[in-house]
Amino acid sequence: MLLSVDIERLRDDLLAAGYTLDGLAERLGQPALAGLARNSSVAAARSLGAADDPQAAAIRLWLLQQPVPAASLTGWASLPGLLAAGLVTGTTELRATVELKPHGSDRREGWICSDATPLDGLAGRPRDDFVLGASPASTTLSQLVPPGSYPRALDLGTGCGIQALHLDADEIVATDLNPRALELARITLGLSGVAADLRIGSLYEPVAGEVFDLIATNPPYVMSPPGDARLTYREGRIAADGLVRQVVTGGAAHLAEHGVLTVLGNWAVTGGQPWAERLAEWIRPTGCDALVLQRELLDPFEYIEIWLTDAGLAGTPDYLDRYHRWLDYFAASGIEAVGMGWIALRNSGREQPELRIEDWPHAVHQPVGAAFGDFFEAIEPSRLPTPEFLSRRWITASGLVQETIGAPGAADPQHLVLRQQSGFGRAVEAGTAVAAIVGACDGELPLGVLVGAVAGLLEADPEALRDEVLQPLRRLVADGYLLPS
Ligand SMILES: C[S@@+](CC[C@H](N)C(=O)[O-])C[C@H]1O[C@@H](n2cnc3c(N)ncnc32)[C@H](O)[C@@H]1O
């Protein structure tokens, strides 16, 4: 265990060596950083050449997983503590047993301490309690969180501590089942100046009876055959997608009023039941508003290949055996496909919660956290009683564009499409009347007046037109095309 005082010393040593995001960018250059993002060390090693200054030593030790001469770290006050904690080993030549990577978020700059990422195509099964560093999934989850300052936040399954690093909260509780994860998260957060209450335990056990304004989690969602050795960072002990279900169904009880739960997960598509129905069965009893977006739907073959490769098993002698066993498990469990996506719940205490579950494989504009927040905020205005809805003034969301599609030279377009250029990047086909009304929504006149004016222009019956456009306009409000003025 690295003592707090040594974490402080390590931070000072890293800063003094220039082992920071800016320091790396300046020292290594863009191709080397891009190489490291692809888990290739070659360009970075070439950039360093034979240099043995403290910054080069830090890069070799903590990032490239190379040995460095002990003499290159003589000035480091943290070295005795690192050796005592086993985070660095050796005598004349030193090696790191973990990875320490500079990391930045909107909120702060710091370092992430995790197990070492396999570099340069090195395969092989990681240890069962492997602690993953910042992965693409980690970044995606951090981008799903609606921006804002939260009084109390829970980072469930913190791993290396990356979510806590991104959170803006007065009080952060970070939990994990894996004691090694908590130890490395303690170093990450200590180095990065984030105060968090780290607790060990499964799911919501460590926070029994507590509520949070935000829960963010990227739980272990891989649905592996039971009996196979588990990698704690990706596989729970509950069959199929039971763990993700428990995160969702159990989460509501831990949400404060207006509290939000964001989950990145996988779910099984089973027994011919539409996936959305299955997710609705999980969410309805929570009584929360919810937005679920399925980003990808994988057939069992694609899914299994991804995760066998992730476990370092591609090309190994038992690859095919495991592959077939996994397929047999899916067949026996009725798992026909796997959905991957995002779940957000908000405890609004509404009598009739809003439950929106959609396929959304299209490109989005990250970070989409604000769009999730806007979705929840739009529920109330989209449901206003009709007289109030029509008497309100509305404006179009910034960046909204109208696309007209039709044959070259045609007098009228065949399709009018309203497209968002931020958030979820939604697009919707609008009729001439709806498009004209939306175009006039500049916050000056009440919606009802605009509907009447457009009826006049189109020589339509005002009441009939109002009935026709009301639902599409409510949906445009719900989806963030139109905002209260
Ligand atoms: C996919 S990793 C996510 C890590 C980190 N939050 C991120 O965003 O990268 C899942 C984490 O959940 C932890 N975990 C596994 N089973 C758990 C459980 N039953 N309860 C709490 N955490 C668990 C793992 O140890 C791992 O750190």
Summary?
With 485 residues, the chain is an alpha/beta fold. Helix content is 38%, strand content 23%. The protein folds into three domains: 4-97, no CATH class; 136-380, Vaccinia Virus protein VP39 (Rossmann fold, 3-Layer(aba) Sandwich), CATH 3.40.50.150; 384-484, Enolase-like, domain 1.
Walk me through this protein's architecture.
The structure is a single chain. The chain has 485 residues and is of the alpha/beta class. The strands form five sheets. An eight-stranded mixed β-sheet has the order 8-7-6-9-10-12-11-13, sandwiched between helices. Strands 1-3-2 form a three-stranded antiparallel β-sheet. A three-stranded antiparallel β-sheet has the order 18-14-19. α8 links the parallel β6 and β7. The protein is globular and about 90 Å long. The mean pLDDT is 95. The site of S-adenosylmethionine (SAM) has 24 residues, from α7, α8 and β7. The site of S-adenosylmethionine has 24 residues, from α7, α8 and β7.
List the helices and strands and how they pair.
Blueprint (H helix, E strand, L loop, with lengths): L3 H14 L3 H8 L1 H8 L4 H7 L5 H9 L5 E2 L9 H6 L3 E2 L3 E4 L2 E6 L4 E6 L21 H9 L5 E7 L5 H5 L2 E8 L2 H14 L4 E4 L11 E6 L24 H10 L3 E16 L4 H9 L5 E10 L1 H11 L8 H15 L1 E12 L8 E5 L9 H14 L3 H6 L1 E4 L4 E5 L9 E5 L7 E3 L2 H9 L1 E5 H12 L3 H17 L3 E3 L1
Parallel strand pairs: 6-7, 6-9, 7-8, 9-10, 11-13
Antiparallel strand pairs: 1-3, 2-3, 4-5, 10-12, 11-12, 14-18, 14-19, 15-16, 16-17
Helix pairs in contact: 1-9, 3-4, 12-13, 14-18, 16-17, 17-18
Bound molecules: S-adenosylmethionine (SAM).
The site of S-adenosylmethionine has 24 residues, from α7, α8 and β7.
